[in-house]
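Researcher: Following up on the earlier apo prediction. This time include the ligand. It's zinc ion, with the SMILES given after the sequence.
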Amino acid sequence: MINRDRIVQTFLELVAIDSPSGDEDAIAAELERRFGALGVTVSQDSYGNVLGRREGVGEPVVLSAHMDTVEPGRGITPVWDGADIIRSDGTTILGADNKAGCAVILEVIRSAIEDGAATRPIEVAISRGEEVGLKGAANMDYSRLSAKVAIVIDSGGPPSSVQGAAPYSFGYVVEVHGKSAHAGLEPEKGVPAITIAAEAVLGLPQGRLDFETTGNVGRIQGGLVVNAVPDYCKVEGEMRSMEFEKVDGLVTRSKARLDEVQSRHPDARIESTFAMGYPGYRLEPGDPAADLLFGVLRDMGMTPDPHPVGGGTDGNVFRGHGISSVVIGRGGYNQHTKDEYLVIPEMLDCARVVEAIVRRI
Ligand SMILES: [Zn+2]
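Model: Understood. Below is the ligand-bound prediction.
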């Protein structure tokens, strides 16, 4: 049975280990140790994600969370009076995003061992670098995951709070190669890469384009000194939409804009790459992960509350690798702020829902 004291204790111990993105070695080792102690066959893949497998009966299921946290996330001191809410002391985040997800997975396995309950084969996938662009999921060793369904425990609110739709994301890099020349003596011999890049930028998607589509020019680099015409400028950005056709249309329009700028500046060379960062999705009947989760929620008297989110999660990346994924709440609020807090009864509900999923054979 899911045990409140035990899961809370696990959570408090996990948040005591600092794990801002990029600094996950200690928490990865600790998670590996804990899963190993529960009989899970576990190791880190070449990127340092913690991947494990516990044998069982029937169709396997991936249980996933991420191990990294945002900043300020060092020296976290949880404040808890024994009641239902755990907060930070106000100087850092709490780290419920996503140590609560890790604690849920550990507790579900512990509970299964304690009860001697039959479960599906459980494939544990704890990613690094989720908060800095889903890096761990992008670099995960998918040859070690055989399940076609994943429960990603990484949303705010109760477990019935499900990410019902998430956007398609494309990223791009535009490089303008110009020609340098002395800015004071012979500027006419130069081809100013920054100025040409600026023309391109003005035509690239920016801001909220409609209710489900956004664009951002996020980074620009170029030039070395103020007295030389710059010969190089690099622009990086992204666009997202809930509809593939819309984001695909933005890619087409952006490329057309770059062609147009190129034709105005034949002495410059504009190179660009556009690539899908992750695919979007919308939960619909017939989706294996949604059917599994929604069935369990209803059986437990909870009403599934799918809602769209503007950001990607590891669930998007998993879907890109053919694993139907749902992202469920684990009781956190005010995520990514010093006001972050965890509602223990909702974390417990999350663990009970995940437990029911792995025991549904
Ligand atoms: Zn998270």
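Model: The first helix runs from residue 4 to 15.
Researcher: Noted. I'll compare it with the apo version next.
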